[in-house]
Amino acid sequence: MSINTITLSPERRPLPTPDEMSIRDLSNIEYILSLSEPGKKLDGRGHVYLSDSRVVIVADAVGADGFETLAVPLTSLAGVRADPPKLLSSSPRVTLDVAPPPARVEGRYGWCVRAELRGSKAELPGFAAALDKTYERVAAQAKAKGTGEDEFDLPLYAAAGPSGSGSGSGPSTSDVPSDAPPGYEP
Asked: Nearest 5°: CA angle at 109, between 23 and 97?
């Protein structure tokens, strides 16, 4: 059972979507998934995969709860936090806060609200840094696209026609583009 459906290869790796680029993966991580149903959590060991568009958690083995995979698009993340180990014997952790889906989710688990990953002191900090950089890039692209700040989305105006004959009666309508703002004078 998956929280959301993804396709795995025979080696239990997520198959990439079109134009998706793999960035990093870690094995032998511990995960704790907090779900939308109050008090419901899933935990276990598995692999985590980071691409330029999503984070995928794959359980090593399907447990008694039936959990197998979770894929979170980077645009659905509300935040990413990396915490160093608190004690010498504890491991570092990465917490992913997941925004609620736009539509009501039906199913056995609902949706994942938070994913906590714990792993090797040598590997998890590098994974956290790659995840943070990728998340920031995706968030900046989404913000620019959503607010119209993207330089390629600027409106295009038609070239102005030939100038009037100089009659002095003001600009002719042929000199003013049809999509010009009110009060525009060439």
From this structure: 45
Give residue-wise pLDDT tens across range 18-59. Answer: 888 999 999 999 999 888 777 788 889 999 999 998 999 999
User: What tokens appear for 30 in the block?
Assistant: 């511990």
Please give the CATH number for the structural domain made up of 22-147. Answer: 2.30.29.30
Asked if 130 and 23 touch (Cβ cutoff 8 Å), the reply is: yes
Assess contact for 28 and 70: CB atoms under 8 A: no
Q: How far apart are CA 170 and CA 177, in angstroms?
A: 15
